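WARN retry 2 of 3 for item q-0093 after timeout on previous attempt; input resubmitted unchanged.
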Amino acid sequence: MNNPTQSQKYDVVIIGSGFSGIVAADILAKHQLNILMLDENMHVGGQLLRKIPEQLGEYASYNPDYVKKLGFRFVQNVKHQKITIMNRACIMGIYPDKKLLLEVERKQVMEINYNYLVFATGARERYLPFTGWTLPGVYSTGMAQVLMKSSGILPAKSMVIGGSGLFLFSVAYEYLKNKGKAVAVLEQTGMMEKIKMVPALAHQFSKVAEGFKYLSRIYLSGVPVKYSTKIVEARGNGCVEEVVTGKVNSDGRLISGSEKIYKADALAVGYGFVPNIEAPQLAGCDLEYAEDKGGWIVRVNDNLETSVKDIYAAGEITGVGGALKSINEGNITAVSILHKMELMAESDYVKNLARLLKERGHHMQFVHFFNSLYRVPAEALNDIPDETVICRCEDITMGDIRKSVAAGYKTPKGLKTATRVTMGNCQGRTCGPVLYDMLGLLTGQPKQSFGLFNTRPPLKPLSVEALAGFVEKD
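OK item q-0093 returned
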């Protein structure tokens, strides 16, 4: 692994070290290319490949499934390849002359030039606000898993896990394995609806095996799994003490009189994932709204090249579909770049691409079923009380959103002007996805007609030390 230097030029820069990023880097590195791989995290591998440190004793027992074993193999491969890996590196800006500005380790700003750029920025959790979701002890499902997998910390002695999506069962499995008391697992979609997913699982054996492992542990532990059940409220004096839930109808609306209260020390909640498209948006790549792919995604051709020449997108940002899809798209991206650089024979390229695109077709079928199945109906937003905070950074409530839309602010830009939503530290990463849903519900217009909230450099807050050093250098 090389150490990066300032103002260096690379053949390929890969932003993101999850499955698609490490697969593409591993293949490209075998052709003696000068590669830089960037990631905001301290480790290579993304969220799915976090590994419990051995010094954490009993929590370090780890038996990864087939896909994770494959992923860890790729992690080891890239660490031993001639690849420059830069962790704790945040994108500041992306410019038309194939230049990037990075903030590295919160200390310095670096300028990087490239010939080819690959976005493999993955996805983040989607949230659905409810009364009490800002109460201490309410965790995202991802944060709960990070505490257990990276730090060996149990979020609480007892916990309710709720929301929508397969990830709920993964978190419940991890929590039970680490001797936590799971009070209940609450899935907002219905049990019968999952039958629709069966045809899409024909080419997803590892997902079936993984799901069976999770559910077996949950049911054998005696944890109640409730379908068509939503989180209504988190209550407590300064922290979570109880969770109010309720049954929902086909529109996701609460059925009056179905409420039930669970006593618990914490609540882990998540509603699936949305693609991290802010960096491609900043680079000028065309985006499109596709409900059955996870929301706003990057538009790509069969080679996974975006609308901007020599910029590619792979993994969750072309459709939320999990690790196997990301591995496939990492392969496609690498093959496409090698062909474009004339490092792969035409016949080999055609044969490889045909095989990979056939595989991608199977993965995209799963993407369609998965995101359609676990989509929370927009009508469910009608249950959110006016006093519920939606934008936590700027303290904007559901009532503020409803009043602003009624006053004529019916676009992301208008809503931002009227209320300051998305203008805080997270820049809309938490509230942005649900705001699109709210605009669609309150205006009756298709979400793709609104456009996106604006993205501009820097993509995330900078440290004063890094910025000052950069200004002094100039």
